[in-house]
Amino acid sequence: MPQRRARRPALRRAGGSMARRMVRLLSSSSIVATPQVVGVKPRNAITACQHIAGVHYAKGKCKSCYRKEYLAANQAVLQKCRKTAKQWWRSNGRRTAEYYRRKRSKPNARQIAFLSYVKATYGLSAREYEALVVRQDGRCAICATRPRGRLQVDHNHDTGKVRALLCGLCNRGLGQFADSVERLAAAILYLEKHQ
Predict the structure, then answer these.
(1) What is d(CA 100, CA 98) in angstroms, rounded to the nearest whole number?
(2) Packing angle between helix 109-122 and helix 75-105, nearest 10 degrees?
(3) Segment holding 33, helix H or strand E
(4) What's the rounded Cα separation, in Å, for the pair 98 and 148?
(5) Over the stretch 64-123, which tens digit does the pLDDT of each residue have?
(6) Where are the alpha helices (DSSP H) in 43-180?
């Protein structure tokens, strides 16, 4: 049976550097994936576990093999953590649950949460956001409609500067066109041509 080259593992955004090194190593060397036989280590294996395909994590093992080994080696620590967590919830659970129940039951809890998000993400205070809503008369800056929900904050992704408030459709539309004037102009020409 002819041997096939190992596929390049899919990269996740978060785990970039280690994953990229592994991909470079797999693609540059002559490592090939061989059919696995129980108890036999594949030739040219660079990992400590039998799973040759995919990105390997700690100690040269894939995620599932490392987790099994970790859980087996640290049972006492994990049981102690579970016991401590149970004790904490026995003494504080009702109070914590009641706090969150009261917090969510406030009539304007969603509005407060949204304005906190706007402040943390875009640096707009509640007054500044409300001033923008009043200045735009509660309408989208592009299509001039009044959305059912709240207006969304549009900002420049390069500078972070807030531009205006848009309805959800217009805001997502700009995002899909990557804020590119050229793409939007090409889309307008396309729509005019095919009307």
Answers:
(1) 6
(2) 110
(3) strand 32-33
(4) 32
(5) 788 888 888 888 888 888 899 899 888 888 888 888 888 777 778 888 889 999 999 999
(6) 63-73, 75-105, 109-122, 126-135, 168-176
Gap between the Cα atoms of 17 and 55, Å rounded: 11
Helix (H, G, I), strand (E, B) or coil at 171: helix
pTM for the full predicted model: 0.47
Contact in structure between 73 and 66 (CB atoms under 8 Å) = no
Segment 170-193, tens digit of pLDDT: 999 998 998 889 999 999 999 999
Q: What are the backbone dihedrals phi and psi of residue 4, each rounded to the nearest 5 degrees, phi first?
A: -110, 150
CB 167 within 8 A of CB 147: yes
Instruction: Enter the tokens of residue 97.
Output: 């649950």
User: From its phi and psi, is residue 124 left (phi > 0), alpha (psi between -120 and 50) or beta?
Assistant: beta
